[in-house]
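#struct-queue
[09:14] JT: dropping the first one here, sequence first, then the structure tokens:
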Amino acid sequence: MPSGSIGSHRAFMGVSITLCVILSLSLYVGWKWYFDSLVSRTTLIELAKKAEKRVQDLENLGIKVEAAHSDPISSAPLKIMAGNAESPSAAPPSQTSQTPATLPPETAYPADSIIKELPLLESSDEVVQALTLLDQYWKTTSWKERVPMVAHADRVSPLMKDYYETQGGKDPSPGNLMSKARYQIDGTEILYFSYSSSRPTGSLEIAMLRDGPGGRFLIDWESLSGYSEMSFQEFRTQRSSKPVTMRAYVRLFDYYNFEFSDAKRYLCIKLISESGESSIYAYCERGTKLSRWLEADLATTGPTGFKGYIMKLSFPLGAQSNQCVQLEQVVAQRWLKLP
């Protein structure tokens, strides 16, 4: 073979090898960039999901976050809606001769409060003890044996007796533990646990309160059970014209009938019992600060979502039905009522 042909062949092979190396490097760099980008994208999506879940957990507890923080253990204060008083205009009169002004107008709905999300050390004695206490609670069938496990036992014990023995109430069954956190709300420290549940919101929120300075955390039984002064059934049967404190899942609704048939005059909200088995409708007059507050706070619930409220409700005098009531007061926009 001529030397010129050999040289040309070697040159061709050299160029080909060089091109292959360059192509391989380009493919390696390209694929590495692609997979790194994919990992980064997946990480961002996971972080976004965690942030969304954190906000959802806060809202399930009744905490409206106005400025979310990316740091999950940030101690910076967040502005929320809590169960203290603001000063709206006077409560609106009802369409009947009865007026719901049995409560001071300044307490018609909750005012702003401050929450801090505190660092949570999952392996700490406090968290381990709290989870152990919850496990004991679920395994205990007698409400009397549960009394030492709940916060403010002296006050709550008669409520437990009423709930279990008179109202025939039952505790919800917890599913898997979905999340946990630690908060300080208006100076009160709580541990928060969220379990999957068959409740209307799909979750069971449990708050645990510290039993005195440096004490252990005990269960806030009222918010866990969704305790109300009357069961929905009893409330509808008695048609009390005096305000009754009720816990319920709430959302905006469009049902107008009986004394509250004027949709232009009244704002309607639907109330679902803690078990999801009963419902009633509550009304307040449009154009008031209370109605505007409700519309703003419930705007994110959509057609199927709910928020947990503590409210005072009453029937109009001579009520025409057992399902349409007056909304006297929103005590708190969560089932946890702090001192």
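[09:21] JT: and here's the second one, same format:
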Amino acid sequence: MRAHPIFVPFRDEHLAAMLTLPEDEPRGLLLQMTGLGAHRSHRFGIWTRTAALLADRGIASIRFDYRGVGESTGDLGVWHMADIPAGQATAVLRFGMEATGARRVAASGNCGGAWTALVVGARIPECEGVAFIRAPILAPTRRGRLTHRASRSGIGALLRSNKLARTAVRAVLNRKPKRAVDLAASHAEVLSRGRILFLFGEEDYHVNETARGDLERLSTRLTPEQRSRYELRIIPGRSLAGFESLETQDLVVDAMVDWTTALFAGTRPAELAPAGR
């Protein structure tokens, strides 16, 4: 294994990244992304450990600090969860492809990194798969984020009792009523030529009845071939929140290494017959 710290140019800034290479020519490249604000190795070095195991299997990986986080330059500023840093991720993945010569790539991430991986996977034709780890299946709107916060504070009571306050808040929300990205379109685009792994813990609220309904509604828009290319994998008896326990970390690392290895084994997914479910 060879690990190379690098800085990837992005607009007027530089994104700190780590490129991990196998000893021989890589047969694929995985982009690894964290949740909002986390450093590139993620909690407990979980992505560093994943990168090392992937290198042992002949797969390169690249992970990075978002602008204004860790060793990257720039100012993070106010970052809403609906603001997807797809431009940063695309720049890093393209840099990794150029550095390694890899033309078979995949993207992975959790929380905000999961939404970003889905958008990047749709944008980059060479992307053969996306690992979507512990995030709401549909990204929140700015409206959803604000109203959720309000409902958990005294602001909620004020809004319910004061018509003038409700009117003022509604005027602010109506200026940004749409999602930052169309994840349903990205979902379909990725599955038109590659695979998606949805990875959750059994105790994560993201896989409650509502979330499963979101996924099923997305699936009804797909062709049978597209539906054959996504997998929902749930780790029994666990929540993936914060990767708190060593056992949970190991389960996530193993799932990611096995999925990525299978993805880059043999024929490209777009050339395979539908796998069935």
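[09:30] RK: nice, looked through the second one.
[09:31] RK: The chain is about 40% helix and 20% strand.
[09:31] JT: good to know. The domain at 2-139+183-271 is CATH 3.40.50.1820 (Rossmann fold).
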